[in-house]
Amino acid sequence: MAWYHYVSFFVGGALLTNAVPHFVSGMMGRPFQSPFAKPPGEGLSSSTVNVLWGALNIAIAYVLLCQVGAFDLRSVSHVGVVGIAGVAGSMLAARSFGRFHGGNNPTVTSTGAREPPHASS
Known about the structure:
The protein is mostly helical. The protein has a domain at 3-21 and 52-101. The chain contains three helices and two strands. The chain is globular, with a radius of gyration of 17 Å. The N and C termini lie far apart (56 Å). The model has no long low-confidence stretch (mean pLDDT 86).
């Protein structure tokens, strides 16, 4: 298989992973960061925009995974490339969006207030 098929699988896996938070947030009726917000990637976009952005990510991932190369779900190398892209994309998203929602510092709430220390049992 040509090298560019693996690049296609990697990008497809990243897009598939990126689709999840946008699509789910949109379906739940919640705003979420998107490239269309002001400022891009930091401001919130409507739930409708996020559903559409998630659906577009899924459609492009489909093309990259199923039309560019012959993706085989039973091939460890094919699934491995998609999995690595998914984990890498998820880690980048966790770090990036964690600064807005308190995920990078779990003792700070999304409003910026510190949580009280938990009593040890």
